[in-house]
């Protein structure tokens, strides 16, 4: 018998010493959401500074050289040795495709795409970046995505950046579980109540629910209202969590109807145009409560609050007199626009809820000194809440409802001027209300509005196609994505070159056009009465997105001639007129 046969099991080699690393994602929840192309994907965007914010927020990185290295392809190559990816799911015998995609210097350039099949059993897979075939067109890390084989798989992932020699990572943070039943948690939630306001309209909603009548809860806002950061987005978003809590605790036999109308990356400038379509469902829905959330989306609003107040007045003016609540979300840099927008709430005596006031003061504290939740726990990324964050937002709204319920039991409402029968004609706008009567004009609405504004499409020109590659969002309880502005006018790629011409009588006019990252899309020139008003560039925002801009804001109504044509040199490019706002 040979010596080899007498030996016991051979000892494994010593484990390879792990390099220094920091987290880009830790315990991040991901989900196989259905996409318009039939795939099941979870996207995690890293552009626009998101990767550096993730390094600071999740990886505790403060070194400026390391932060700067993350902003370029060359810096990543210099600093990052490998990417470690682990995924944990119930379907541990399956794998998910991990993709890291660079974004280009110029739209259309070839970029690096790194792919790896990662088992969902929690074991880490390391991707050695020295073996990657980097492309010259790379500008920055654009996105991670996880591509699942089947719909609805829910998982968590850790993504680590392992460092080359010469770089040292900081100590990685550890978080304690959030104690939702603690006094500290309840105190934090209490701080979110910025203003109770006049409670008459909201009290009416609660009374309807208790009497067994049907109640409709409506929500309009940006990506946070859409549910970004919530996993699954249609179940764990703050709007759905609040709705479920309200239905459980206040409904008494009637139906609680849920209307969610959040669109990522869009301000109240677009919200006021799509309000009737997305919240009122063209008359099919009559929300008893409307929550408006644009406090982190309106920085780019060219009217600096006029569009926001116009939207608020639209909601308050509805004949069934719904309750309107202003909700102020927060970014990870402890910022929002509540200082700009809260005067609107005070002007009309509206309930206002500030998530910033609740969570931001306790973020800097240590766990034993009053911190309830860390930024890493609250935020899914630099902009959006995690499931925990969405739960907190819902609890802030529930706290408001509970306060109104307690306050109004047997008590007369205060501030009658702001109650159910408020007269908006007697309340001067706090900022402005130029667009409170704005209406959506697209191919579908054209027939209905044609006589009111004496609209004539003189010539569709080469804008005679319909674009189907549109921004899409999850509405209401649905996980499937619904395209925004499908009734559009599109100038196709390599199409004929002829202007879109429309005449109408109005004093307010906005254009909604499609943004895109693709080089196939070009710049259009927008003329009103032969005056060049705008060069509409779809590449400024850099993703498939709905962009609303003011073309005209006059005091008097007059006949207007609108002409949209492709800029010289862009005639063979694609451009999409999603619609107009008109008043």
Brief summary:
Helices cover 23% and strands 30% of the residues. The chain has 583 residues and is an alpha+beta fold. The strands form five sheets. Strands 16, 17, 20, 21, 22, 23, 24 and 25 form an eight-stranded antiparallel beta sheet that branches. A six-stranded mixed beta sheet has the order 10-15-14-13-11-12, sandwiched between helices.
Radius of gyration: 26 Å
End-to-end separation in angstroms reads 96 Å
Shape: globular
Low-confidence runs of at least 5 consecutive residues: 1-14
Fraction in helix: 10-25%
Number of continuous helical runs: 16
Strand content: 25-35%
Helix/strand structural class: alpha+beta
């Amino acid at each position: 018998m040979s010596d080899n046969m007498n030996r016991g099991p051979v000892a494994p080699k010593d484990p390879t010493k792990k390099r220094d690393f920091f987290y880009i994602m830790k315990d991040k929840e991901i989900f196989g959401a259905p996409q318009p192309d039939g795939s099941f994907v979870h996207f995690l965007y890293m552009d626009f500074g998101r990767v550096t914010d993730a390094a600071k927020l999740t990886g505790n990185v403060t070194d400026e050289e390391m932060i700067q290295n993350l902003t370029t392809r060359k810096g990543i190559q210099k600093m990052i040795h490998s990417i470690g990816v682990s995924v944990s799911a119930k379907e541990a015998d399956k794998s998910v495709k991990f993709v890291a995609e660079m974004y280009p210097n110029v739209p259309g350039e070839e970029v690096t795409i790194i792919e790896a099949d990662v088992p969902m059993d929690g074991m880490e897979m390391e991707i050695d970046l020295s073996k990657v075939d980097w492309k010259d067109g790379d500008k920055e890390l654009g996105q991670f995505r996880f591509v699942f084989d089947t719909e609805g798989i829910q998982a968590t992932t850790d993504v680590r950046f392992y460092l080359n020699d010469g770089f040292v990572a900081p100590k990685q943070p550890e978080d304690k579980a959030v104690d939702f039943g603690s006094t500290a948690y309840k105190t934090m939630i209490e701080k979110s109540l910025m203003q109770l306001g006049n409670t008459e309209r909201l009290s009416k909603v609660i009374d309807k629910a208790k009497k067994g009548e049907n109640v409709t809860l409506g929500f309009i806002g940006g990506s946070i209202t859409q549910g970004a950061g919530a996993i699954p987005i249609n179940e764990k978003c703050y709007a759905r969590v609040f709705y479920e809590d309200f239905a459980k605790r206040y409904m008494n036999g009637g139906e609680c109807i849920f209307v969610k109308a959040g669109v990522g990356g869009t301000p109240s400038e677009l919200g006021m145009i799509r309000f009737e379509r997305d919240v009122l469902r063209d008359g099919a829905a009559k929300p008893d409560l409307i929550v408006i959330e644009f406090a982190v989306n309106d920085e780019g609003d060219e009217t600096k609050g006029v569009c926001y107040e116009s939207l608020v007045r639209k909601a308050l003016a509805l004949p069934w007199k719904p309750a309107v609540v202003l909700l102020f979300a927060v970014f990870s840099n402890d910022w929002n626009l509540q200082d700009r927008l809260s005067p609107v709430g005070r002007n009309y005596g509206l309930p206002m809820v500030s998530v910033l006031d609740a969570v931001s003061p306790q973020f800097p504290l240590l766990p034993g000194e009053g911190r309830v939740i860390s930024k890493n726990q609250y935020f899914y990324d630099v902009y959006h809440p995690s499931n925990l964050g969405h739960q907190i937002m819902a609890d802030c709204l529930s706290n408001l409802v509970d306060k109104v319920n307690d306050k109004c039991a047997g008590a007369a409402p205060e501030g009658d001027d702001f109650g159910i029968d408020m007269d908006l004609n007697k309340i001067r706008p706090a900022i402005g209300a130029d667009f409170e009567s704005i209406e959506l004009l697209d191919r579908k609405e054209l027939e209905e509005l044609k006589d009111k504004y004496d609209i004539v499409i003189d010539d569709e020109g080469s804008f005679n196609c319909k674009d189907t590659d549109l921004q899409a969002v999850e509405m209401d309880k649905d996980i499937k994505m619904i395209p925004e502005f499908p009734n559009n006018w599109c100038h196709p790629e390599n199409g004929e070159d002829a202007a879109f011409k429309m005449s109408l009588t109005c004093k307010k006019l906005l254009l909604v056009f499609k943004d895109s990252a693709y080089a196939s899309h070009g710049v259009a020139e927008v003329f009103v009465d032969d005056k060049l008003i705008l060069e509409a560039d779809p590449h400024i925002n850099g993703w498939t997105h709905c962009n609303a801009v003011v073309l005209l804001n006059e005091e008097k109504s007059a006949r207007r001639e609108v002409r949209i044509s492709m800029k010289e040199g862009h005639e063979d490019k694609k451009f999409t007129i999603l619609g107009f706002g008109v008043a």
